[in-house]
Amino acid sequence: MTNSSPLFSAECREKGKPQRAPEKKVTKEPKPNELNLPKATDPRLLQAAAKPSKAKPRGKPMAPPSQVPPPASILTRVVARGRFQKVLDSLTLAAGNTLELRCKGRSVRWKFPTYLEDEGRLRCVSNGRYYQLLVVNSTAADTGDYSCWSFQCGDSECQDGVDRMGRVFIFFTGQELFVPTEDYYQVVQLRTNRPTLLPCQVTSPLAQVTLHREFPPEEVAVDGINISYDMKRGFMIHRPRPSYAGSLFCMASLDGVQQISTKYMLIYINYPSSAPKPTLSASATTVQAGENFNVTCTVSGEPEVAVDFNWEYPGQQIGRPPYIREHADLVRRGGQVQQESESVLYVDEARDIDAGLYTCSAMNLQGTTTVSIRVRFRAGWGQVLGEA
């Protein structure tokens, strides 16, 4: 369930109009001889009071950057009627309690665990001075990030107030130590080009969590460099490698109770650094009737990177089926090991329809590259087909 009130309402625009500052009353400065001097016997006090004061520089003195306080949070929690609590980085509540958050602002946008929209336990209301988010009958699954943004509304439009944001991570503790999910197994890709997250979130910040492999059964070392742990997110694999592939799970311990998370099936994918760069060659660029020839598409790249090939050739016009052979081998070039992938298109007993353009498309996870070569057909008496 989302807030039914529009983000930029007419009420928001009306209240967002800049208010005119109240006029200041001008007070006439008394002359030195009209000053009400304090009753004091010390002549120095009399002399100081009689002296006109020096003009002070306009504006408030700026505090050093290190002493400037951070902006006050616009997000608070309602503890009871008339009682409020400032929210910090995180908050722990018992599952089953009602969560009530207030966000100051004339126009506010909320962010919360997405599945709550379909649960029917979420309400968002506004009274003009603040917006309220209410979650009733909370469960361990409600654990997550809750935040709000306040928008600055002018005469015609509302703009996001960058410095007007409130955010809190809320743990809903109960019998379940992990945030429940519907999946018993979850497939996770280990890509070499980015970190991998195992999202085993806990419902209590006090739970001790370890990472384990299912086969063979062993605990996976968490050194903070290759793998790190964040109680709000889970385990992060910063440097994916083939040895991490397999079935992994998290184990949480609290007050003598142990529970395991969803099992994660990690599949290692050596993500390429760029799209393939194929080269194309033909066994003969000019052939005669009845001859056999082939066209070879070759890609040299990183080991363990899958490359797919696709062909377009003149014989497709009459439905001539292709005969294609593909293979990949590891080769050493310049002291480095590379993978050489090839796709070979064979044409037997060539006919005039086989003259023309042969196009190879090589694809990997980064993109597709296409190259072409022309094969000409010598029909006889010096006539060459496929020149156009």
Automatic annotation (TrEMBL):
<protein>
    <recommendedName>
        <fullName>Platelet-derived growth factor receptor-like protein</fullName>
    </recommendedName>
</protein>
<dbReference type="InterPro" id="IPR013783">
    <property type="entry name" value="Ig-like_fold"/>
</dbReference>
<feature type="compositionally biased region" description="Basic and acidic residues">
    <location>
        <begin position="11"/>
        <end position="32"/>
    </location>
</feature>
<feature type="compositionally biased region" description="Pro residues">
    <location>
        <begin position="62"/>
        <end position="72"/>
    </location>
</feature>
<feature type="domain" description="Ig-like">
    <location>
        <begin position="276"/>
        <end position="372"/>
    </location>
</feature>
<feature type="region of interest" description="Disordered">
    <location>
        <begin position="1"/>
        <end position="72"/>
    </location>
</feature>
<dbReference type="Pfam" id="PF21339">
    <property type="entry name" value="VEGFR-1-like_Ig-like"/>
</dbReference>
<dbReference type="InterPro" id="IPR036179">
    <property type="entry name" value="Ig-like_dom_sf"/>
</dbReference>
<dbReference type="InterPro" id="IPR003599">
    <property type="entry name" value="Ig_sub"/>
</dbReference>
<dbReference type="InterPro" id="IPR007110">
    <property type="entry name" value="Ig-like_dom"/>
</dbReference>
<dbReference type="Pfam" id="PF13927">
    <property type="entry name" value="Ig_3"/>
</dbReference>
<comment type="subunit">
    <text>Forms a complex composed of PDGFRL, TNK2 and GRB2.</text>
</comment>
<dbReference type="InterPro" id="IPR003598">
    <property type="entry name" value="Ig_sub2"/>
</dbReference>
<dbReference type="InterPro" id="IPR042495">
    <property type="entry name" value="PDGFRL"/>
</dbReference>
